[in-house]
Structures are given as structure tokens and as C-alpha cells.
Amino acid sequence: MYVRKRKLLPVCFRLSAPTQAILFDPQMLASLVSNAHPAFPVIREAYGRIVRTFESDQEIAGDQFRVSSPHSQLRIKGALMEIIAELSEKGSLTQTTGIEDARSHALKEVLSYIDTHRGDKIYIHDLARIMNMNEQYFCRFFKKTVGRTPITYVNEIRIRDTALRIASTNDPISTIAEDNGFVNMGNFIKQFKKVIGVGPAEYRKAMRGGI
Fold first, then answer.
1. Are 4 and 24 in contact (CB under 8 A)?
2. How far is the C-alpha of 206 from the C-alpha of 88, rounded, in Å?
3. What is the CB neighbour count within 10 angstroms for residue 30?
4. CA 15 to CA 114: how far, in whole Å?
């Protein structure tokens, strides 16, 4: 699901494995800081469950916190869905209309295009064309909506793909990088460290218990 300032939309990716995500603008929660908000009790309780789950079953990859066990992932997903349901019930989420609706649909097409072509060379002008925008306006719109530039977003998607393969296979790191669109190893290592926090070789070693 994609949430932008109290706007809730589904985002579907055509992947070989089922994938779900919830994207939202953190500013959306600003009005919920006060305990005067009608949804605050439910959100506080659900958030507490999320925190406790992370504390009991978490691993850190760069600036990202994640849980590996399926039951913990389900608990967190359930708590997030409960928060969204409560916000919707209390009228804090509304449906998009008009131009904003069309742009939201186009953005979903952009995200799907990136996902489908993650291993290919992706050009900004191709993404901008999907949304019928010039490149400069598209980049501003994408960053404001998604929270990062198109290039950063694409790199993060690719790096997380490489990280999964580095940890789960014995394939050469250079081959994995090339398969995910990185032709310059120096740039790949730099981007990998930026997203994951350590270099690819060190990451593989850590994921295998330092062996």
C-alpha cells in the first residue's frame, strides 16, 4: 500500500515471490502525537506491539531495521494494518480524486516499471514519460512523494536484491553486481555500504556467521 498525506492506495508489483509494502509520509502521523486524537489509544497499543516485536527479533542492515522470522513479520504487518484501519475508521484517511488520483496511478506504474526493469539500465526520461512530466518536475515530484530521489530509490532496490543473493548464494559478488545493473564495482561497493552499512564481502561473511 502507498500512503501519501492521508491518501491510501494499493501498489502491486509483478514479482517471482509475493511482496507487500506500506509506504507513507511520516508527516501523516504528526497529528497523532497528541493523545487527544480519537485513534491515539489504538495506535499507541499497536505501536507498542511493533516495538516489542522488533526488540525481541531484529537485525540491522545499514539504516534499516528488519525482522527475519515469518511470525514476527506477520505480527508487525498486522499491527500496521490495524493502525491504518483505525485511521480510516476515524476519518483520517480519504480517497484520492481527480488529478491527484491520476498522478497516484501513474506513480504506481513508475514503481512497477522500476521493479520490472531493476536489472536493466533505467533512464529518468523514461520514468518521467510514464507520468507525462518533464524530467526536472518528475524528480521533484518523486522525491516529495516517495521521500528519496529516483536514482536513490532504484539503487536501494538493486542493493537489497544483491544483498539477498550475496547472503544466500556462492555466486561471485562481481557477477551479482552486474546482474543487478552495476557495471562499476567501485560504485557498487560504495552504494552497498551506503545502504547496508558494510561492504558486500564483509556482509557475506557476517551473514554466514563470520566463517
1. yes
2. 42
3. 9
4. 12
